[in-house]
């Protein structure tokens, strides 16, 4: 899946420049950086195992803000071009539909990675001495979480015809995957009186990218007993299994976005 040179590179750089000027993205990213730094300062002033305090707090914060930033980056990728009547010109470039989608994803993904780096970097600078290396372990999974939601946002963008509709859908998705998904699993357990097997619940938890991110990092930062203490008897996939899940979440929506663009173009 190669980005054509120089068309793909120019398109990716254009996307990166445009996203760094997006005021909503800048505001949300700055708020994330401030809150992450505050968490780091709080951990520095706390007594005891500061990593067990700062790490899980940052995981919770990132699982709320990073998907929101990512969806804000991705929701107008295609539908914005359609509303500006520039989509036809974009698709006339010497590149396939999937390659155009990939170039847009790369530009927006780099902007997302920069926002994550600034946010967690501020927390690392504010954290207690010797804690920064532990917190650095959050960067890779947090970027993977963000890229997943950028990809999902771009799929929504390719399926809708108006930016307002795309914005409504991504907000609904954010609430669904970040807040209501876990509540739905809890309601399922209550409604079935615990009849649903632990394996099924575990699969449903890690099948949601936000859930996979939370349980993986909480277990890594607070130890294997952290999840049972929270009432989550979840067996995590292997590192290979987790990598496969992240790749599926990131690449799947991108490929579908390219196919949707090709299908819509063929129908015209």
Q: What is shown here, in short?
A:
79% of the residues lie in helices and 0% in strands. It has helices at 7-19, 23-45, 50-74, 79-83, 87-91, 97-126, 132-136, 139-159, 163-191, 198-207, 209-222, 226-229, 239-267.
Features:
268 residues; mainly alpha; 13 helices; globular
Please explain how this structure is put together.
The chain is globular, with a radius of gyration of 20 Å. α2 runs parallel beside α6 (about 95-125), α3 packs parallel to α8 and α6 (about 95-125) runs antiparallel to α8. The protein is about 80% helix and about 0% strand. The model has no long low-confidence stretch (mean pLDDT about 80). It starts with 6 loop residues before the first helix and ends with a helix. It has one domain. It is built from 13 helices and no strands. With about 270 residues, the protein is mainly α. The chain has helices at about 5-20, 25-45, 50-75, 80-85, 85-90, 95-125, 130-135, 140-160, 165-190, 200-205, 210-220, 225-230, 240-265. The longest helix has 30 residues, at about 95-125.
Number of strands: 0
C-alpha geometry: globular
Proportion of residues in β-strands = under 5%
Oligomer: single chain
Largest sheet: none
In N-to-C order, the SSE pattern is: HHHHHHHHHHHHH
Query: Residue ranges: pLDDT <50 for 5 or more in a row?
Result: none
Percent helix among the residues?
over 70%
The first-to-last residue Cα distance is 26 Å
**Secondary structure tally, helices:** 13
- What would you call the structural class? mainly alpha
Q: Using only CA atoms, what is the Rg?
A: 20 Å
How many domains? 1
Q: Mean pLDDT, rounded to whole units?
A: 81
